[in-house]
Specification:
mainly beta, 6-stranded antiparallel beta sheet
């Protein structure tokens, strides 16, 4: 493990999987960078205290401080624990502890609180025994009122729905009916339902092939999914509680397998683990079957340290992965749930971002060098070095994104670089310097989303948690990269006082779902989806087992992303049916013929099963790939 792992662990838990409600604003500064202000002013205040995440030997405290009196220009919050809770890291202020008393002084950017204004702060603590919430708080020496501490939610698994059993045969022809459009005004954010397993925002988000969104709870072995409503609206959807997993993995490898199962492996941090394992097991594989709502274990990695090493989905649906310490490559077979050895790498692949190219090869971006893997020969080549400054303080590229123009955007620190892959897996390709971040902000372990309009959406922070450098931005920003113009532009934040939006995924309706502070938010991009990236449907035929076989072009989309702490390649089709009443139904797709990004006009196929209870009738069938839908409906009678 690299020397910076301890810092990354604290920051990653804070930002990404500590229920985001306590963490999304945290990336805006380090406690060590906070500038104390004078605190001569008295204050009237209210404090809300929650435990947003707990992992047995530690927890994350999320605190909202609200000024209920006259405006103040600086503040100090103080409270005491009754047990042995010990501060390990705090953010959005300067944290300290003396005995059982904890003191927090405002950061340079959140010291001024108008009447009714609030500041969201958080910290990680270790403890043993009981974890009683603080009884009282003072702000600038005045005792605060406020809501009582909120208990952590404890959802229980629900029973899975029975699998669909369609029997009628379809008849299909292109209908010319245009695809439904996103339901909100472009450039706006819409609140999504509150995740019941966290009481606020989701943590990580993954799109499943039936159009639902898989996510964690406060504990990373808790699982829920967001299901859109009958009109395809995710803003009006509902969360369903799923079965708990054997492991609670943080910063792991994640992919959708060809049969629709969810693959999660490794984990830089292990919070929960099955009997016989331990928190040191960073090499496990667990698999979720959404049809049966069950988890199973696959074979562990071959070399002992999958952790948050690089991984990618190959064209045949297998998972190629490295090892944190060994310069080796291994391939996981979904059919056998087992690994086989593959070609050696020039170097180990800790903290790398990997993306699969349309030709099936894989590009690996690290801070040291960049590489390309050819699965046909199981060999790696070393690529030309990227421009200096793109990496995250010498640790890792913040995110690696294959864009719709076939180029790869990598970002880190306050810079970016653009790689043009060579035409063949053995070709070296070339680099170009990309634009810097607005106001010199930073992309530390950020997550990106290639939008349907061809731009790339990602989050930035004012101060780098690793290097300590700060830009002139007033705080966190959501930024769009426009590859056509070569520009970075800050866009509006969601109206969430508890934190910025992070961890974006494309939804089948063309919107983008993001986990933010108090809840999830849905963004409607500005501009139309790229027509050249739209999938098409050419035929739908019935299979003998009641499922259906769909053929078409560009079914796996043109874009994908890779980051060492989170992967969500969405290179599979999501099928949906619309009837004359405006109701939307999502079949479950599986067995995609090619799970690499598409080449222009490429013919692909997939199977799908209809949802249980689908009314008989005629529908317009659409296919969405990476958030871009087919332009016209395909008439489908059931």
């Amino acid at each position: 493990m690299r020397p910076v792992v301890s810092a990354r662990f604290q920051r990653s838990r804070r930002r990404c999987w500590s229920a985001v409600a306590a963490s999304a604003v945290a990336g805006s500064t380090l406690a060590a960078l906070a500038i104390p202000a004078a605190h001569a002013q008295s204050a009237s205040c209210a404090v809300a205290y929650t435990v947003s995440s707990s992992w047995g030997t530690g927890f994350t405290a999320a605190i909202t401080v609200t000024n209920t009196g006259p405006g103040i220009s600086g503040w100090t919050l103080q409270y005491s624990y009754a047990g042995n809770q010990t501060l390990t890291q705090g953010w959005s202020g300067t944290w300290s502890q003396s005995g059982q008393t904890v003191t927090v002084t405002n950061a340079s950017w959140n010291g001024s609180l108008a009447t009714g204004g609030s500041a969201q702060i958080g910290a990680n603590f270790s403890y043993s025994g009981s974890n009683t919430a603080p009884a009282s708080f003072t702000l600038n020496g005045t005792t605060c009122g406020g809501p009582a501490p909120s208990p952590s939610p404890s959802p229980t698994p629900s029973s899975p729905s029975p699998p669909p059993s369609p029997t009628p045969s379809p008849s299909g022809t292109p209908s010319g009916s245009p695809a439904p459009t996103p339901p909100s005004t472009p450039g706006t954010w819409t609140a999504a339902p509150v995740n019941p397993a966290t009481g606020g925002a989701a943590t990580f988000l993954w799109l499943l092939p039936d159009g639902s969104v898989l996510s964690n709870g406060s504990s990373l072995n808790q699982w829920v999914k967001l299901v859109p409503d009958s009109h395809g609206s995710y803003a009006n959807g509902t969360w369903q509680t799923l079965a708990a997993s054997p492991y609670g993995m943080g910063a792991a490898q994640e992919h959708i397998l060809p049969d629709g199962r969810f693959y999660q492996a490794g984990g830089e941090f292990i919070y929960e683990f099955p009997s016989g394992s331990s928190a040191n097991d960073h090499n496990a594989v667990q698999l979720y079957n959404p049809v049966t709502n069950t988890w199973s274990l696959g074979q562990e990695g071959l070399y002992g340290a999958l952790q948050d090493s690089g991984s990618a989905t190959l064209a045949n649906g297998s998972i190629v992965a490295s090892d944190l310490s060994a310069a080796r490559t291994q391939i996981f077979s979904p059919a056998t749930n087992s690994w086989t050895a593959a070609g050696s790498r020039p170097a180990a692949a800790g903290e790398d971002g990997w993306v699969t190219l349309p030709d099936g090869s894989v590009v690996s971006m690290s801070t040291g060098r960049q590489y390309r893997y050819d699965p046909s020969s199981s060999t790696w080549i070393t690529l030309p070095p990227a421009p200096s400054g793109y990496a995250n303080g010498g640790v890792d590229p913040a995110t690696t994104t294959l864009m719709s123009n076939g180029k790869i955007l990598v970002m880190g620190s306050n810079s970016s670089a653009v790689y043009t892959p060579g035409a063949a897996p053995s070709a070296l390709g070339s680099w170009a310097q990309g634009p810097g971040m607005p106001q010199g902000s930073y992309v530390d372990d950020s997550y990106a989303d290639p939008e349907p309009n061809g731009k790339v959406l990602f989050d930035t922070v004012r101060c780098s948690w690793l290097t300590g450098a700060c830009g002139s931005a007033s705080g966190p920003q959501i930024v769009e990269y426009d590859p056509a113009a070569g520009t970075m532009t800050a866009i509006s934040e969601p109206p969430d006082s508890s934190g910025q939006a992070v961890n974006f995924i494309n939804l089948p309706n063309g919107q983008v779902l993001a986990a933010a502070g108090n809840r999830d938010w849905i963004y409607t991009p500005v501009g139309s989806p790229l027509n050249s990236s739209r999938p098409t449907v050419t035929s739908v035929t019935a299979n003998s087992n009641g499922s259906y076989h769909l053929t078409g072009t560009q079914l796996s989309g043109f874009v994908t992303t890779g980051e060492d702490d989170f992967q969500d390649p969405q290179n599979f089709p999501v099928v949906y049916l619309a009837n004359a009443a405006g109701n939307i139904y999502y079949p479950r797709s599986y067995n995609l013929s090619i799970m690499a990004p598409s080449t222009p006009g490429e013919t692909e196929s997939a199977n799908f099963t209809l949802p249980a209870g689908l009314p008989l009738g005629t529908y317009n069938l659409y296919v969405s790939a990476c958030g871009i839908s087919s332009a016209t409906g395909y008439s489908f009678t059931y």
